[in-house]
Amino acid sequence: xxxxxxxxALNAEQQQNPAVxxxxxxxxxxxVLVRGPISRGELALEMKLSVASLTRxxxxxxxxxxxxxxxxxADGTVGRPVRLLDVSSGSAHFLGVKVTGDSLQAVLTDLxxxxxxxxxxxxADTSVDAVVEGIAGLAGELGAGAGVELTGLGVSLGGQVRPxxxxxxAPFLAWSDVPLGALLADRLQLPVVVDNDVTALVAAEQxxxxxxxxADFAVITVGAGVGYGLAMRNHVIRTADxxxxxxxxxxxxPRGPLCMEGHRGCSTAMLSIPSICAQIAAALGEPVSYxxxxxxxxxxxxxxxxxxxxxxxxxxxxIAAAANLAMVNTVVxxxxxxxxxxxxxxxxxxxxxxxxxxEAEPVTLRVASSDFTxxxxxxxxxxxxxxxxxx
Length: 391
Prior knowledge:
Largest sheet: 5 strands, mixed
Helix content: 40-55%
Number of domains: 3
Radius of gyration: 22 Å
CATH superfamily of the largest domain: ATPase, nucleotide binding domain
Strand order of the largest sheet: 5-4-3-6-10
Shape: globular
CATH topology of the largest domain: Nucleotidyltransferase, domain 5
GO molecular function: kinase activity
Protein name: NBD/HSP70 family sugar kinase
Family: Belongs to the ROK (NagC/XylR) family.
Pfam family, one: ROK
Organism: Arthrobacter stackebrandtii
């Protein structure tokens, strides 16, 4: 049976002396980070604690500077004003880096994953040394540019990543068992977390997006491939198979095109950017970019319209499958190809409704940005989750 892995950071000093918060204190700090500023009364209700117990629990967090108290405000109840608890979002800064096959996209964020600056660098080659040096260069550039010291680094990429930061498998980089986390921690002398890119997006949504309203949700990404991630009971699901891209070959249309693995009508064949462009290009007899494919569909081109209609139906079926099998009612759509949703929304929603029980709760769809900055922000989020509350 697969196990759900925790996500440790790679930092020698911390590994030897991990003064990490208790589960209750971590949950309190997380709630304040996600919901703050917030009163002790509201927190006590959410955490099912007495106000006195919550006050005792928050004291060491206040003493260490993790939490701060705001000005006196009226909380809407009868009685004296209260001081709201909050975090000092500018007290820590994190670098998030998304590694692709030809570039590095980086963001500098505060404690709430607000993007303060971003930068990108082309990758001359995908060797380990080139990636490490490229990330180190971005860390120096963004940190110096903002005049801040980095608290931690998060890196995301497509592939299997072990809990110790070893990239077990990343086909697009031609990597196998690369200790990327340890190499970067040694190079930058920072705590480093390395994670699968889709899982990192789930982490960002868990604390700073859909997870604020839903304890359970799924993330589906569309781009060079198709990704799938899951959060249940406020925990990001990571298993031994995370990063294999299993959601990319879910069967959707028995009459659809073949993917590169020979699966007919799977999610990759129906939804990925390369497949959509290849189908339209084959019919038109000329190369077609994704932006051009969307333009053709919007302009009434029958070939492009048919391909995107089929893709919209497939996406609706995939969303329904995720909602039905995982029993979640919130699904986040992301990735550089997510523009297809706006172009095919009617087909997506029709297929979703068709594959759902009419008495099931409605599925809430949240569409994330298609910018690579969103992926880099996900990488920063896993660093925040791992490092923000180490005391």
